[in-house]
Amino acid sequence: MPGGDGSSGEPAQALAGLRVVEFSAAMAGPWIGRFLAWCGAEVIRVESRSRPDVVRLYVPPWNPDLGIQPRLSPWFTDWNAGKHFVTLDLRQPLAVDLAKRLVARSDIVIENYSAGVMGKLGLGYEELQQVNPGLVMLSSSGFGDTGPCRRYVTWGPNIEALSGMSRLSGFPSRECTLTQYAYPDAISALHGLVAVLAALDYRHRGGGGQYINLSQYEATVAGFGHVMMEYLALKQEPEKMGNRSRRAAPHGCYPCRGEDRWCAISVATDSEWESFCSVLGRPEWRGEPRFASLAARLEHAEVLDAEIATRTLMRTDYELMTALQEAGIAAGVVQTAEDLARHDAHLAARGFFEQIEHMAKGVVTATGIPLGLSGTPGCSGRAGAGEGQDNDSVFGSLLGMTPEEVERAVAAGAIEPADEP
Amino acid sequence: MPTRPSGALSGRRVLELADEKGAYCGKLLADLGADVIKLEPPGGDPSRRTPPTIQAGSGREESLSFLYLNTSKRGVTLDLQRSEGRELFEKLASSADLVIEALAPGTLESLGLGYESLRQANARLVLTSISGFGQTGPHRAFRSSDLVASALGGSMAVTGDETDPPVRLAGSQAHVAAATVAAASSLIALLSSSVRGEGQHVDISVQEVVASVSHICGVGKWLDDGIVPKRQGTGLFASVPSGAYPCRDGSIYLMVNRPLHWKALAQWVHEATGNQEILDPMFEGPSSNRLPYREFLDLFISDLMSRLSVEEAYRDGQSRHIAVTPVHSAAAVAADPHLESRGFFEEVDHPMVGRLTYPGAPYRHSKTPWRIYRCAPSLGQHNREIFCDELGLSEAAVQELQAGGVI
Hints:
The complex is a heterodimer of chains A (421) and B (407). Chain A has 2 domains: 19-225 and 371-411, Rossmann fold, CATH 3.40.50.10540; 251-346, formyl-coa transferase, domain 3, CATH 3.30.1540.10. Chain A has 18 helices and 11 strands. Chain A has helices at residues 30-38, 74-79, 93-104, 117-120, 125-131, 156-162, 165-168, 183-204, 216-223, 225-234, 270-279, 294-299, 301-312, 317-326, 337-342, 345-349, 391-398, 403-411; strands spanning 19-23, 42-47, 84-87, 108-111, 136-141, 210-215, 251-255, 262-266, 330-333, 354-358, 362-366. In chain A, the strands form 3 sheets. In chain A, strands 3-2-1-4-5-6 form a 6-stranded parallel sheet, with helices on both faces. Chain A has a 3-stranded antiparallel sheet with strand order 7-8-9, with helices on one face. In chain A, β10 (354-358) and β11 (362-366) form a beta hairpin. The longest helix of chain A has 22 residues, at 183-204. In chain A, 56% of the residues are buried. Chain B has 407 residues and is of the alpha/beta class. Chain B folds into 2 domains: 13-214 and 342-403, 3-Layer(aba) Sandwich (Rossmann fold); 242-328, formyl-coa transferase, domain 3 (2-Layer Sandwich). In chain B, the strands form 4 sheets. Chain B has a 6-stranded parallel sheet with strand order 5-2-1-6-7-8. In chain B, strands 9-10-11 form a 3-stranded antiparallel sheet, with helices on one face. In chain B, a hairpin with a 5-residue loop joins β3 (53-55) and β4. The radius of gyration of chain B is 25 Å and the shape is elongated. The two termini of chain B are 26 Å apart. The chains are: A alpha/beta (421), B alpha/beta (407). Chains A and B meet through α2, α6, α7, α8 and β6 of A and α1, α2, α6, α7 and β8 of B.
């Protein structure tokens, strides 16, 4: 469980001692800091009331009359768990100066404002590396910071469509298929994390700091570059495979008893096929020439899937999964969020979900951070908090400002007042 | 790799004992400059035969996905079922920084090559294991696949249309995301090892990675609003409007997430179609104000988009600062002038298939540029280089290993 500041005196968390300043919004930027904070880095998030993070504009669907609730968004509080919160009006020179002083004492800057905004604020890499030559800075935006579309507005699902992912995924009967979870935000944040860590490794081995630019569009395409290769090399649109595979059949998602209940099944080899027929109570399929080999099963995939569905509909999803797994066949229930939290004994046994402290709700359950660092386990810390919650400690203790200096900066509007706790 | 600037990970040595689950992890590290040695059984990694393939002369075929997922690596063959093979593996691991493996949990231990044995010879070593369900827990021995991990991890339940079965993403994204997390976690463990002088065993579960990358629809949202997220077509549940809209010659994706963007969109619809209703102030503000009118507003927006070409909708929308993007095909991505101007695609020569175009850098480091150092290795291409020149085996010894089927 949590390493924290171990009493042994030796930091148990992998990235303890690193300091990160984040100028970020939504998920693609903040999620990088979330991982770093989980590993023990001190992450300071700079916010501006003049341009609130879109996730702070949350209206609880369970009571829209409450209006905008900046501290209640389950996404905001998750993506920003374990961070410190300061408020600066970056349109003011004094605020920019304070931001630079934070950066001067830090190792990493992560920003995902629209391309060019940091430069306009006087916080571009050129300026920041003058106050901190060893700085590693990552800028992430939809299109990257060069090219004709660099200022275009995008959100995660836009990138899903733009990258080709939504046209290449799904069933052939649909023009495009999208996730409800803005996959490019996640996959580009993970690539950003790799990029920052590689630059840190280089710096740690004597190479100095550097700037990294990430285009979420390009990172998403890189993640399915192996599919793009078919077009690039053969000039043909990759076939939409849906749940099918070229190397396994049956390979799909089959309906089970109950409403919208499904089990995914992958049968890769002929011996798995034989076991599969037994589990499904259809031993006679073994002798069927239509299904006798992978090539035959692929050729007759349509009829095979229909036949299987008539059998799986009579079973419950978890029972079918267990029976197939016991026979050595890859199978898994199509789990919902509720299933993951309530019915997955495996995830529970691994302690995957974390209980984290939330300033408004008490304790909330958070999806785990899947880094699997067995020697230096991380922890989430406090859920994302109110704007400016840590102004006093960050400007006072870290920057060494006197209470009077802080007051003057507040009076001048450079430091914006904190939320009422 | 002299003369050009070094990569961010130059000097790091990685052994990759991975199948398709882990190959992208090794590629990420290799394209950043790490010396990644791919270890394959003497018969070759089965993913060398993954279709589609391209002709490589004299009747041979190369898998396009294998070519992509194994750039910048060196390759050797090694039979871990043989004691001589295991000895070579131990030798390589004793001077490596990182071993990536994707075998079934417990396999390395059963060969006497588990983390506890490897660390005896190399205390700083990081061992990263990628498996369907992780190294511990009641399902650790469960069989997995990209599809099964997508199902159990929760992403399929929230992908696609509500009237279709749940569906996964193209290109084995459960495995790609797990490989990316594995690369990040390996680097964290390497940094920690550099400071503390002690490596660790990194345990990546593909199921957990899927749950993590799809957590916008996860337990936090469900416990907050009490609604279990399901498939919902192309529109995102929390953003109104959002979704794919048909134009004259294809579709665009539109998403409104800020009150300002709604005003700009309403104005655009009004100017282009004469629609007055859309300007009603009752639709302004956060998405929650528009949620009850979602289908109604979609009709107005569809009316606008059906009059435009994809290119017109894209350029007009973006000039109004509205998040409109085309729904691209692979061909459209390959021809995108924006990517072209950034030089995203890379040309790589391959001795058998010639010059091919590859998707390029996922990120750009100013000092240590990402690049493809070499094309994917042929089977056992670097056996001699690594076993003779680097491990110091004699020519005769290597020939003997080869004759004995060890390499």
